[in-house]
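Fold it.
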Amino acid sequence: MTLAPAHVAGAGMIRFGKYPADVTLERMAVGAARAALTDAGAELSQVDALYVGHVFGGPVAGQRVAAQLGLDGRPVSNHENYCASGATALREAWVALAAGLHDVVLVIGVEKMTDRVSGGVRPDPGDLDAAVGYVMAAGHGLSARRYLADHGATREQIAAVAVKNHAHSVHNPFAQYQRPVSLQEVLSARPIAEPLGLLDCSPISDGAAAMVLCSPAGLRRLGVTGSVPRMLGCALVSGSVRPGTGDVNEEDVSRRAAEEAWKLTGTGPEDIDLVEMHDCFTIAEIVRMEGLGLIPRGEGAAWTEAGHTALGGRLPVNPSGGLLSRGHPVGATGVAQACELTWQLRGTAGARQVEGARVGLSYCKGGTVNGTDGGSVTTLVMSR
């Protein structure tokens, strides 16, 4: 089954980083939204509905954003799907456009984490993962140790993901970090969860990203002519709490997310020219690319070391810098990934441009369920 594409009329972001308390979630969201509207040449009066992805914003954050934007009274949807929240908002906007409910919609992903998240935050008493010590860093540390043992990979190969993504973000004006890091810096960084150190982990971030999506009628309403990037489709799958093979890197949820994306969009792995990957930790980029079937199983670390996933390589991954270096304000990440795909497919990404990019994929994963292959995964496919 395929649905009509959503046409991307505009994309906008604010720089990800750590903002003071007076820079509120609403203020960041409005800044990104206005940038996207300007990029689309759209007026607020032309927007039919607002979709907002966030995690820590509260139950009516979208309505607060709408009021400050001047969109109060329009349909507003709030989407909380942990790290996949922004991508889920994009998916629901795409479905609404395809169903003919709206012609011009605004999608915002936003998060203010520095006011709410710190190293000393106490887990929810009902969080069984944390109760048994399975915090995210520990889980990905376990993944890295298993990968090293199973595939003969080296610690240096895993660290190379961080080196690559920081090198990419030097050219991204919206990235939280805009300086390169050396392999030695990654290897000698403060330990977090053996074998991973501080630079193997995505940071706590604030930020917002937004997109204006249209049906063909919406493009006419905005007066947009010529070719614009298209959101071909966005798959959404959830993980399973059922026992699997016992292999922590099996990535069955990524395999199913890929299959659903190909089915929804009529594309396949051979069509993909670049990937925006949810690299919350260095090892995550490797195993999830393999789970999607974009890199052969067990070869992701070697591909990174060889430069195959860098700009100029056979399949560039995270030209934006990814979560590791662009930053990871959880509700904003999925929309930021789609903004990067938009600029890449327009050919306007500057020094981080993937030459000849025609089709891109973004992958966003949110959460686990009791330490299993749970949570939600979105796979978005866009074309020029």
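The two ends are 21 Å apart (CA to CA).
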